[in-house]
Amino acid sequence: MTELLPLPAGFTTAGIRCGIKSDPQKLDLALFVSDRPCAAAGVFTTNLVCGAPVKVSRDRLPRSTARAVVINSGNSNAATGDHGISDAKRMTTLVAEQIGASSDDVLVASTGVIGRFLPMDVLEAGIPVAAKQLSETSESFLLAAQAMMTTDTFPKQATQSLRIGDKTIRISGACKGAAMIAPNMATMLCVIMTDAGLDQDQAGTMLRQSVRDSFNCISVDGHESTSDTVILLANSASGTVVNTPDECQMFQHALDEVAMKLATDIIRDAEGAHHFVELNVTGCRTREEAFRIAKAVADSPLVKTAICGADPNWGRIVSAAGYAGVPLLESDMTLAVNGFLLYQSGAPVEFDAKQVSTSLRDNRNVTIDLTLTHGLEMVRFWTCDLTKEYVELNADYTT
């Protein structure tokens, strides 16, 4: 049973079916609304082929007066030209009319098949219905998370609370994503809400920090999406403004926890995946070098298929590190998988291949530790295996 999570003060949400998806059982329209202006910031895909909603929302952020985010699933409104831009803006206008806001204070995101125009007739009819169902309940928050889903098998939500002074602050977020996942960012949409008081510059700085170590450290298939959007809304409804360095540090930690939970849930729900893989690359000169190595290993189809087959073929891992564009020697690397030492200081070590294979086969969670001798920087990265189910699902996605 899905756990019901609370919204921060001053926020309401809704999730309905308006008819974008053909399946009559699936929700496809979500609203996230604040009862007062929010400091808002966003992080978006760096793909030069990006969806119309990304262009619209990116142009409106950062800002100090945001009121809402509207999200549809089932159609990404990407590669749709000026027509798509007009439709994305129309979605924000429809929401603004319902909540008494300026259309520029409404943000928009879409997810689904690329290259198809939105069915605006169903959105014109559906947005007023969703607005009438806005609620501060945990049930409405769950419905909004469900309405964002495409090939996801479960809704993804997270929440954290912290005390600043005599007040409690809450941070709650919802996201979707299961494939077309790669850093910068992934086919994922995310809305994070907080009743803390932040200014738009704080919101942007803190969100970028959280995204760097969460959504930008996951990969399912290495394919960067057209629609990636993470939005942070801070409405000050708790009556507490985050000011001092200690308060900022406390808030950043809680925000990081929310983002990390949402990002790793994407990997746990990766299309067709049998294994959740945590990759720790340590001992590097810079974080960027650690990230390059981690991404090369995580994106390697040969590494991913070996994990799927419970094959302790460690050569695929160290060879992927070797083409990551980081200066290194074989003798700089030591590798362990699920705690089993396989390769040390550039040379293989004796290990029980059957025992390691059994560990990979019998455990959904796999840990890869690649240690270098260059310095103190590290990156933690998450990926999954590559299975027949993934290939079959994506081969038949639109047909």
Secondary structure: elements and pairs:
Blueprint: E1 11-16, E2 29-44, H1 52-60, E3 63-75, H2 81-99, E4 106-113, H3 120-132, H4 138-147, E5 156-164, E6 167-176, E7 189-194, H5 200-212, E8 229-234, H6 245-268, E9 276-284, H7 287-299, H8 301-308, H9 314-322, E10 334-337, E11 340-344, E12 347-348, H10 353-362, E13 365-371, E14 377-384, H11 388-395
Parallel strand pairs: 3-4, 7-8, 9-13
Antiparallel strand pairs: 1-2, 2-3, 2-8, 5-6, 6-7, 9-14, 10-11, 10-13, 11-12
Strand content: 25-35%
What is the CA-atom radius of gyration, in angstroms? 22 Å
**What is the second-level CATH architecture of the largest domain?**
4-Layer Sandwich
* Count of alpha/pi helices: 11
**Shape from CA axes?**
globular
CATH C-level class of the largest domain is Alpha Beta
Query: How would a crystallographer describe the biggest sheet?
Result: 8 strands, mixed
What is the N-to-C succession of helices and strands?
Answer: EEHEHEHHEEEHEHEHHHEEEHEEH
Low-confidence stretches: none
The portion of residues assigned to helices is 25-40%
* N-end to C-end Cα span: 32 Å
Q: Looking at this structure, what is the CATH superfamily of the largest domain?
A: L-amino peptidase D-ALA esterase/amidase
Strands, total number: 14
Question: What's the CATH topology label of the largest domain?
Answer: L-amino peptidase D-ALA esterase/amidase
Give the total of domains: 2
